[in-house]
Amino acid sequence: MKKIAVLGSTGSIGTQAVDVIDAHPDLFSLTAVAANTNWHTAACQIKKYKPAFACMIDKTASEHLRSEVGDICTIFQGQEGLLHLIEETDADMVLTSLVGAAGIAPTLSAIQRGIDIALANKETLVAAGELVMEEAARRGVRILPVDSEHGAIFQCLHGRKSEEVEKLLITASGGPHFRLPAEDFPHITVEQCLNHPTWNMGGKITIDSATMFNKGLEVIEAHWLFNMPFNRIEVVVQPQSIIHSMIQFIDGSVIGQFGMPDMRLPIQYAFTYPDRFPVRNAKKINWNTLAHLDFYAPDNEKFPAIPLAYEAGMIGGTMPCVLNGANEVAVYAFLHKKISFTRIFEIVRAVMEKHTVCHDITLDSISSADSWSRRCAVSLI
Ligand SMILES: NC(=O)C1=CN([C@@H]2O[C@H](COP(=O)(O)OP(=O)(O)OC[C@H]3O[C@@H](n4cnc5c(N)ncnc54)[C@H](OP(=O)(O)O)[C@@H]3O)[C@@H](O)[C@H]2O)C=CC1
Ligand SMILES: CC(=O)[C@@H](O)[C@H](O)COP(=O)(O)O
Ligand SMILES: [Mn+2]
């Protein structure tokens, strides 16, 4: 029985992870949950699965949760409380399905405790990939990818030697604006962005898919997860989101992972690796109706997010952290209708241009680069 702590249990990935746990009571138990404000969903999870610990970041939400289910489990509060939860938990695995760079500290704490990580929270690897991967290697902790593309690459790499790999091919849906002419970009609305063509996800990542910053973040995530130089990572637009990513080998052979767009598959595989089990009510590909699979190159003029991410990744040091922090600020400003869609690109680029890179990577240098980039981005809104 694997005991799993789900950080971000009330979100898109978190609730699907709870569904995976629910489907296999013989394999998994839910031993801790954490969320920001949504105490109601957390309370339902606590009543049903009886985890030992919970944490709400928001103070009022933690008080509501305590009065509702304080007799069932110990409830912590705030970022500090989340670290206490990590210190106390008996989890065998922590799923990082919270959103944004807030994932860095709890992920590092879990690694320091020797707990395996199922990693959905890509912002943590973008901002602090060097720290996280070094710490995981030092402690012998496994980082199992949940992000669909990285889960796919992980499956394709299984049993292969790294010197056989020529490049990673990360697929992208292209998002809702893939076919929209560039002249319409300044008028793109939040509602248009939230209408993702193939995936149903949380707000922040859905905007990232619309700008294609999601793909840029995923290129940096792949660099750290698979120790792959940036010139051997390529983005391929695959609008049906049936091929979740591929690997090209040195002999020209390409192996891809196919499946319907359903995040429960990579979540469950991260939980059960190297074994496979059925995914409850999973839709399978119908090869008779899947008329075609299309492939396109990304349009780097319309979507400068991808070249900006390659640039940040290749500069290295604190630059990817700065790209991530500025993007987070710009995305929420767009979601709150304070800036236009195309300002997101401009703000991230401007913040990167103003940044003096630090190559001495510590938790302090990452934290200060993250805070600096957020202040700088706010000043541009
Ligand atoms: N959704 C998807 O299909 C995919 C998501 N990912 C990645 O997974 C992560 C989660 O995405 P998604 O599930 O879509 O996001 P959601 O917005 O749906 O959920 C985010 C979750 O994190 C919680 N949360 C927010 N801030 C904090 C914080 N500071 N500390 C603790 N918990 C917090 C939220 O709580 P509350 O509900 O109270 O706000 C919620 O439970 C992101 O990094 C995303 O990029 C990767 C691949 C696919
Ligand atoms: C499900 C998942 O992993 C998302 O990251 C997804 O890939 C987003 O779609 P885009 O390919 O449009 O960014
Ligand atoms: Mn993805």
Question: How are the SSEs ordered, and which strands pair?
Answer:
Elements: E1 2-7, H1 12-23, E2 28-35, H2 39-49, E3 53-56, H3 59-69, E4 74-77, H4 78-88, E5 93-96, H5 104-112, E6 116-119, H6 122-139, E7 143-145, H7 148-157, E8 165-172, H8 190-193, H9 203-211, H10 213-225, E9 233-237, E10 243-249, E11 254-258, H11 264-272, H12 305-315, H13 319-335, H14 341-354, H15 363-379
Parallel strand pairs: 1-2, 1-5, 2-3, 3-4, 5-6, 6-7, 8-9
Antiparallel strand pairs: 8-10, 10-11
The structure holds NADPH dihydro-nicotinamide-adenine-dinucleotide phosphate (NDP), 1-deoxy-D-xylulose-5-phosphate (DXP) and manganese (II) ion (MN).
| CATH class division of the largest domain | Alpha Beta
Rg over CA atoms, rounded to whole Å, is 20 Å
Second-tier CATH architecture of the largest domain: 3-Layer(aba) Sandwich
In percent, how much strand structure appears in the residues? 15-25%
Q: Give the strand line-up of the largest sheet.
A: 4-3-2-1-5-6-7
Function: Catalyzes the NADPH-dependent rearrangement and reduction of 1-deoxy-D-xylulose-5-phosphate (DXP) to 2-C-methyl-D-erythritol 4-phosphate (MEP).
Keywords: Isomerase, Isoprene biosynthesis, Magnesium, Manganese, Metal-binding, NADP, Oxidoreductase
Protein name: 1-deoxy-D-xylulose 5-phosphate reductoisomerase
Family: Belongs to the DXR family.
